[in-house]
Design goal:
The complex is a heterodimer of chains A (about 550) and B (about 850).
Chain A: H1 5-32, H2 43-97, H3 104-125, E1 146-149, E2 152-155, E3 163-167, E4 170-173, H4 178-183, E5 185-186, E6 192-196, E7 205-206, E8 210-211, H5 214-218, E9 225-233, E10 240-247, E11 252-253, E12 268-269, E13 275-280, H6 288-292, H7 311-332, H8 336-352, H9 357-364, H10 367-373, H11 380-401, E14 411-420, E15 428-433, E16 436-437, H12 439-450, H13 457-517, H14 521-546
Antiparallel strand pairs in A: 1-2, 3-4, 5-16, 6-15, 7-14, 8-14, 9-10, 9-15, 10-11, 10-12, 13-14
Helix pairs in contact in A: 1-14, 2-3, 2-13, 3-12, 7-8, 7-11, 8-9, 8-10, 8-11, 9-11, 10-11, 12-13
Chain B: H1 2-27, E1 37-43, E2 47-49, E3 52-54, E4 58-65, H2 69-100, H3 106-122, H4 127-189, H5 196-212, E5 215-219, E6 225-229, E7 233-237, E8 240-241, E9 245-249, E10 252-262, E11 265-268, H6 277-312, E12 327-328, E13 333-336, E14 347-352, E15 366-370, E16 388-395, E17 401-412, E18 415-422, E19 425-426, H7 433-451, H8 455-468, H9 476-482, H10 489-492, E20 500-502, E21 519-522, E22 528-531, E23 539-542, E24 551-555, H11 557-560, E25 589-593, E26 598-602, E27 607-609, E28 621-623, E29 626-631, E30 640-645, H12 650-653, E31 655-656, E32 670-674, E33 683-684, E34 688-689, E35 701-705, E36 711-716, E37 721-728, E38 734-737, E39 740-745, E40 753-758, H13 767-774, H14 788-828, H15 832-865
Parallel strand pairs in B: 20-24
Antiparallel strand pairs in B: 1-4, 2-3, 5-6, 6-7, 7-8, 9-10, 10-11, 12-31, 13-30, 14-29, 15-16, 15-21, 16-17, 17-18, 18-19, 21-22, 23-24, 25-26, 25-30, 26-27, 28-29, 32-40, 33-39, 34-39, 35-36, 35-40, 36-37, 38-39
Helix pairs in contact in B: 1-15, 2-4, 2-5, 2-6, 2-14, 3-4, 3-13, 4-5, 4-6, 5-6, 6-14, 7-8, 8-9
The chains are: A alpha+beta (about 550), B alpha+beta (about 850).
Chain lengths: ~550, ~850
């Protein structure tokens, strides 16, 4: 083939240009350390590197967020630890205050200490993060969350909670609202709170009670406002303490299902320290109406379920019979004196009646008893009616004392309370739905309880009752703070774990990016050498070939 | 003897000619386009004698160039491809390098911005964090703008190179035309001998032209070249050359277009008709790589700005106000075709799904007024105690509706104050008199209609009001006049089959008993332009109250307002659909009106795009994340077209709209609280504002549990309305009212209550900031399949792939050109060794001829010496 001279030069130059371009690119890679110097070198890797780069950048951001979250949560933890110690101190003081050997002055000294503790707690609740933002004001960082008002210490923050994005799928809450830590704490046992009425004169002390079956307690139809009313009847030493459970929303007795009587005796007999169950299984003795019929006596079946009664209970049964007979006689039109006489006859008959409920009933309704009771204006029919009423009372008393059932509808609130001591006639204890109370209010209540100057057994009982409920509330406060702390601590753990994961992930991303776009130096240097050699060969051969010309041989 | 001399001289001459041509070859060995020349030597006519034919020496017949038109043409064709590819490759390498440089890439800027958003989320109350976010967003916006600036300057560069290329093409065309002429002349003068050097020059010019644009040569019988470029544009015919011109494309002014002059001005060539060469490469690069790259960047910018704005506007800033737009969202580019015609009212307005917009009441507002249900009758006697109101719906530039009320409040006998409210806020000061008047007219007419006035009475009312109400307050006498008639339409008994034309009256509801709503559209001047039932201008149809077929009532608008006729629309409502940035494609479009229908063509993919809607402000055309409000040409049958580039301005136009760090809406606009007196275990979650923004979002709302606590009641205590009663409670289920969503879990007790209220003072609340930060990884673009950075990496991949492909094919094509050139040169090229040999050959021939003359001379001397 014929080759034109200029083709020699052109193709030689073209070849060298190509080699130089290749050499240039390789040199660029070597000097930048990047295999993908521009996207066109490897478009797929370039795009992937951008995507992984974004993931890496976000992961780095998460690591920053994790540190920020940890620092904030640790700040929370520090403050909550102080709050815990403080509440424990208050608890110690509350226990000390319960010692009856202390006099009024001693208690007031404790109250003064408690005031100081309350102020310390207030300052903890109003902690700031160093930048002037309040830690426990919810979202209102610029608002001092707890302020002293005429109504005590009030929370004026909100219930907002800030979260931080610590991983792609997890926003961890880092802030705690003061409302959750200090404010929204249920009183009592969490379901209900017990208290003694302020006018109580006895020495009865009520415990916080317990819910044994929350499902039953939570039934919406069940009243959450119940009173335990006490009645003491009879004359010492034969006094009988009975109680009634009153649903304050309806005014009805839970035990009888009827309107609660103003005066005792009440259906249930009280024994100090025995649990008062807020439940009752249905029992259907002969109805009051049937008994009220003069011709129909209470039957043995009415008290068939009753167990053998003890002597003590016989007294109680007698006094109940007395009360019932007296009431029935008055209702029948007898004069008070005659009624008392008739009732006494029935009572003594009942007390002499025997050791079984059946015999008591029989005694109370015996015709001899009725005729004995017939005095003055008390006719035999009135006496019979009184005896019947007494018989019912006896049957109930006997049944109640035996720990079985008394007449009345079935109910079950799944809860019980225990009252110890000796409640006086007319004493009342309240069982109410738990409400929210702030730690500050609890301490204030404690302080005002300790500042009371009354003395005596009743005052002691009142103080005991108050300390009981306050102690329970302080427990609740402590539990609440510990729960919040536990949640905060769990998040700290979680975040720490995420930190490890994120760090590992960061390394992974870096490796991926490096694999995608970084240069393999060994390959590149080898390539550079190869390309250099080829260029040198091209240059050398070009120089040689271009030197060939026939003209050099012409003379 | 003289014969011998003659033969010797002829040999001498021929050898001399040979040396001359060889010398010429040697001297032009490096001349571009030169074809090697050879002498064609033949014997002279021999002399016939009795002893036979005696040769009479030699002569040079012609000088011939070694030339193959086939090979030359092949080289030119390969060259034109190669030039196109290498130009494209050079250009796209610029974008490749731009996107490849990590320092100025978009990815770090977006990452930096969202990191700063996270910074705000981590400490929402901190002004420095907020300032850092503002700065980072400024950096990101600058990066967008810088990248776009680079692409724009590439566009400027490409436009300039196109002009240069066209200048070269014109110059080559001119020279070829001249050479066509010179060659004819030279051939004629030289008895048809070929003017080789002129031919070479012309072929060389064709080769040069091929480098600029694809060139087809049609050789004519007289030897002249006719040149056709591209896909058929004639450039040179004989001695005539067309001069191409460059000018900004009138239909798309950002691009230089190529055209040729005609009697009526310039006719522009479509870019696709000019292929090959540098010019083809530039045009292809501009439409296939530069536009998509700039559009893709713009789409990311628009998507980011709108998505971010939408979330920002669902939040609350540090001052306790609802968030305002964080970015200024750049608008699309709409270029009407100049051939749409002067005086044509055709117009189009395009909005890309602005997720938010401020509500302008007095301008660019379309309103649909609903006829009021008259609750009293108009009469002079009770006017003093009669207040009434019309309800309308107005649309903001988002296409979101707002409740607008026009109140006529009787303040004193014969004095009516007219004022307007939008979403409960009085906006009257910005309302123009014209629109007030118009609305007053509409309201009064409709009210009168509902009250049973006759058509002629209504006309009277309208005239009266229009005279009386030019300046508010409207007097009661004008309105009272509306009710003076007692005829009732209901009793008049219009049947559904009847049709009625009323001049000067507004359409109405015939049955006063239970008026069906009638909707009228207003333009910015307050003129009614159409009815809600989509009837063409000038007529409104309304439904009969009893649900029978529509009754058509024709409205003569020119009598209603004297200021304009129904055909001219001075401004256009801009509408948009929230959430549609995800539908944006980054393509360019052509919106066409064929005299009857509007259609949309995606010019990037050459596919037609279906549009929904009717193009009116209340029902704009919707397609690919854009919404169009159009006005057809006033002249019937006239066509129109618009080039739409929805995202081209995105990256250059994005801006940070706020400068005050406090305006970053990091907080949720509403907070939730559970009452401290709650006894149950119910807890309420934080509230999340959900789009669209609700006017009552920040009202105080109480959720109270009933007895029993299995249901709850939702009460808006700000407006004292019960939003819902006895809603069944199921723990954890979303509860949504007033544009927020919360959930309640646990066991609330009867009487427990939870409140949702304005989030005042919540400086540390970061809920919205977290949502804003979440947008980084949310798949918001490409129909909800990719994130902002994902879209950017797609762009990088596309550019990288094209650049790489161009490099490879360009290299391959260059080798092709080299091979073909070598083949062509193997025929036409000068080989100096060959010429050296020829030199020696002709030298020897010359020496031999000289020797012959010497011998002849010796012979002659011998005879003389005899």
């Amino acid at each position: 083939m014929r080759i034109s001279t200029s083709s020699f030069y052109n193709s030689g130059v073209y070849g060298m240009e190509q080699q130089q371009t290749a050499l240039y690119n390789t040199q660029q890679q070597l000097s930048s350390g990047l295999r993908v110097t521009t996207p066109s070198v490897d478009p797929v890797a370039a795009a992937r590197a951008l995507e992984v780069g974004q993931s890496n950048s976000i992961n780095t951001q998460y690591q920053t967020n994790q540190s920020a979250a940890l620092s904030r949560m640790n700040l929370n933890e520090t403050n909550l630890a102080s709050v815990t110690t403080l509440i424990q101190n208050v608890q110690v003081q509350a226990v000390n205050a319960g010692n009856f050997s202390l006099n009024t002055n001693d208690r007031q000294a404790i109250a003064a200490q408690l005031n100081s503790l309350q102020q310390q707690l207030l300052s903890l609740a109003n902690s700031t993060d160093g930048a002037g933002n309040y830690l426990f004001s919810g979202s209102m960082a610029a608002t001092k969350p707890f302020i002293q008002t005429a109504n005590g210490i009030q929370y004026v923050g909100d219930q907002g909670q800030q979260s931080m994005q610590i991983t792609g799928s997890r926003q961890v809450p880092v802030s705690l609202s003061g409302a959750d830590i200090f404010q929204n704490i249920k009183t009592g046992n969490g379901s209900f709170a017990t208290s003694a009425a302020s006018g109580n004169t006895g020495t009865g002390v009520i415990d916080p009670g317990a819910v044994t079956d929350p499902t039953k307690w939570n039934v919406a139809a069940n009243s959450k406002d119940i009173s335990v009313k006490f009645s003491v009847t009879g004359t010492a030493p034969n006094t009988v303490t009975t109680y009634d459970l009153v649903d304050n929303t309806t005014g009805n007795s839970l035990l009888t299902g009827l309107a609660s009587a103003v005066n005792g005796p009440y259906p249930a007999t009280f024994t100090s320290g025995n649990a008062i169950s807020l439940s009752h299984s249905a029992v259907t003795p002969a109805s009051g109406a049937a008994l009220a019929d003069a011709s129909s006596n209470a039957t043995a079946a009415d008290a068939a379920a009753a167990a053998t009664v003890t002597g003590t209970t016989l007294n109680a049964a007698g006094s109940e019979a007395y009360t019932a007979a007296y009431n029935a006689a008055i209702a029948g039109g007898a004069s008070a004196a005659d009624a008392a006489t008739a009732a006494a006859a029935i009572q003594s008959a009942a007390q002499a009646g025997g050791t079984t409920a059946t015999s008591l009933v029989a005694a109370a309704t015996a015709s001899s008893t009725i005729s004995a009771a017939t005095t003055g204006t008390v006719t035999s029919s009135i006496a019979a009616s009184a005896a019947n009423a007494a018989a019912t009372a006896i049957a109930n008393a006997a049944a109640g004392a035996a720990g079985t059932s008394f007449a009345g509808p079935a109910f079950d609130y799944g809860a019980n309370v225990t009252i110890t001591g000796a409640p006086a006639n007319g004493d009342t204890f309240n069982i109410k739905q738990s409400t929210n109370e702030s730690i500050f209010t609890t301490i204030s209540n404690l302080v005002s309880a300790l500042n009371s100057t009354s003395t005596g057994p009743a005052a002691n009982a009142a103080l005991s009752n108050q300390l009981n409920s306050i102690g329970q509330n302080l427990n609740n406060d402590l539990n609440n703070v510990l729960t919040v702390r536990a949640a905060n601590g769990a998040r700290i753990n979680e975040t720490t774990t995420d930190q490890t994961t994120s760090a590992a992930l960061g390394v992974q991303y870096q490796t991926t990016i490096s694999n995608l776009q970084d240069l393999n130096y060994t390959q590149a240097i080898s390539k550079l050498n190869q390309e250099t050699t080829i260029l040198q060969a091209a240059q050398k051969s070009f120089a040689q070939v271009s030197g060939l010309s026939l003209f050099t041989y012409l003379p | 003897m003289s014969d011998i001399y003659g033969i010797g001289v002829s040999a001498l001459n021929a050898a001399q000619a040979g040396i001359m041509v060889t010398g010429n070859n040697i001297s032009n060995a490096n001349t571009p386009g030169y074809s090697r020349q050879q002498i064609i030597q033949t014997t002279n006519i021999p002399q016939a004698t009795g002893s036979g034919f005696f040769g009479q020496g030699t002569h040079v017949e012609t000088v011939k160039r070694a030339y193959s038109s086939f090979l030359t043409n092949q080289v030119n064709q390969a060259q034109t491809q190669s030039s196109q590819l290498s130009t494209y490759s050079t250009q796209i390498n610029q974008i490749d390098n731009l996107l490849g440089s990590n320092g100025i890439g978009l990815a770090p800027a977006i990452q930096g911005f969202f990191s700063a958003v996270q910074g705000v989320a981590n400490n929402a109350a901190s002004i420095p964090s907020r300032q850092a976010m503002l700065s980072a967003s400024q950096t990101m916006v600058s990066t967008f703008q810088n990248l776009d600036q680079q692409l724009s300057s590439m566009r400027t560069g490409v436009n300039g190179q196109i002009a240069n290329s066209v200048t070269l093409i014109n110059s080559y065309a001119q020279q070829i035309a001249q050479l066509n002429q010179s060659i004819l002349a030279a051939q004629g003068a030289a008895n048809g001998q070929p003017p080789n050097d002129l031919l070479d020059q012309r072929d060389q010019l064709v080769a040069q032209l091929s480098k600029e644009v694809q060139t087809t040569v049609a050789k004519q019988s007289d030897g002249s070249y006719n040149i056709i470029i591209g896909t058929g544009q004639s450039l040179v015919v004989g001695s005539q050359a067309t001069t191409l011109v460059t000018a900004p494309n009138p239909a798309d002014p950002s691009n230089t277009a190529i055209g040729y002059p005609t009697k009526n001005g310039t006719t522009f060539l479509p870019d696709s008709s000019l292929t090959g060469g540098n010019l083809g490469g530039l045009l292809a690069f501009r439409s296939q790589s530069l536009d998509p790259a700039q559009n893709a960047l713009g789409r990311i910018a628009i998507g980011l700005a709108q998505t971010f704005n939408a979330q920002q506007q669902l939040g609350q800033d540090l001052n306790g106000n609802l968030g305002t737009a964080y970015f200024n969202v750049p608008g699309p580019s709409v270029s009407p075709n100049p051939s749409n015609g002067a005086g044509s009212a055709a117009s189009v307005s395009l909005t890309i799904a602005a997720a938010t917009s401020s509500l302008a009441v007095n301008a660019n507002l379309s309103s649909s007024a609903t006829a009021p249900t008259a609750s009293g009758s108009f009469s002079a006697s009770n006017s003093a105690s009669y207040n009434y109101m019309t309800s309308s719906t107005v649309y903001d530039s988002l296409g979101q509706s707002h409740a607008a009320n026009l109140y006529y409040v009787n303040t004193a006998p014969d004095v009516w104050n007219v004022y307007t409210t939008i979403d409960g806020t009085t906006v009257n000061p910005t309302q123009t008199n014209a629109s007030q008047l118009s609305e007053a007219l509409a309201a009064a007419s409709a009210a009168a209609m509902a009250a049973g006035a006759s058509a002629s009475q209504i006309t009277d009312i309208r005239n009266a009001i229009s005279a009386a109400a030019a300046t508010p307050p409207v007097t009661s006498s004008a309105i009272a006049a509306a009710a003076s008639g007692s005829a009732t339409w209901a009793s008049a008994g219009l049947s559904s089959a009847q049709s009625l034309t009323i001049a000067g009256a507004i359409a109405m509801v015939p049955n006063a008993g239970s008026p069906a709503p009638m909707v009228l559209q207003f333009d910015s001047a307050g003129n009614i332009t159409s009815g809600s039932y989509g009837v063409a201008s000038g007529s409104v149809s309304v439904n009969l109250a009893n649900g029978a077929a529509p009754l058509s009532i024709t409205e003569n608008f020119s009598q209603m307002t004297q200021t304009s006729s129904a055909n001219s629309v001075s401004s256009i409502t801009q509408n948009g659909i929230p959430g549609s940035p995800s539908q944006l494609t980054g393509d360019n479009y052509l919106l066409k009106y064929d005299g009857t229908n509007w259609s949309l063509l995606d010019t990037t993919t050459s596919k037609s795009v279906a549009m929904t809607g009717s193009g009116t402000p209340s029902s704009p055309f919707l397609a690919d994340g854009m919404s169009f409000v159009v006005t057809a040409p006033a002249t019937a049958g006239q066509t129109a077209s618009f080039i739409i580039k929805p995202t081209i301005n995105g990256a250059s136009g994005i801006n940070v709209a706020i400068t005050d760090p406090a305006l970053i809406a990091a907080a949720s606009p509403v907070r939730t609280m559970s009452s401290t007196s709650n006894t149950g275990t119910g807890t309420i979650s934080g509230a999340v504002a959900t789009p669209p923004l609700n006017a009552n979002l920040q009202d105080n709302v109480t959720i109270t549990f009933n007895t029993p606590a299995s249901t709850f009641t939702v009460q808006d205590t700000t407006t004292n309305t019960t939003l819902a009663s006895n809603v069944t409670y199921s723990p954890g289920n979303p509860i949504s009212y007033n544009g927020w969503t919360v959930s309640i879990s646990g066991t609330p007790n009867a009487g427990d209550s939870f409140t949702v209220a304005k989030n005042s003072g919540a400086t540390a609340d970061n809920s919205n900031a977290l949502l804003l930060a979440g947008l980084q990884t949310a798949n918001t673009l490409e129909g909800g399949t990719t994130s902002f950075e994902g879209a950017y990496s797609q762009l990088v991949a596309q550019v990288g792939t094209t650049a790489s492909q161009m490099q490879v094919t360009s290299t391959a094509q260059t080798s092709m050109v080299n091979q073909l050139t070598q083949a062509q040169q193997s025929i036409s090229g000068v080989n100096l060794d060959e010429e050296a040999a020829n030199l020696m050959r002709y030298q020897q021939a010359y020496q031999a001829a000289g020797k012959m003359l010497q011998i002849a001379n010796t012979l002659f001397q011998s005879i003389l010496q005899i």
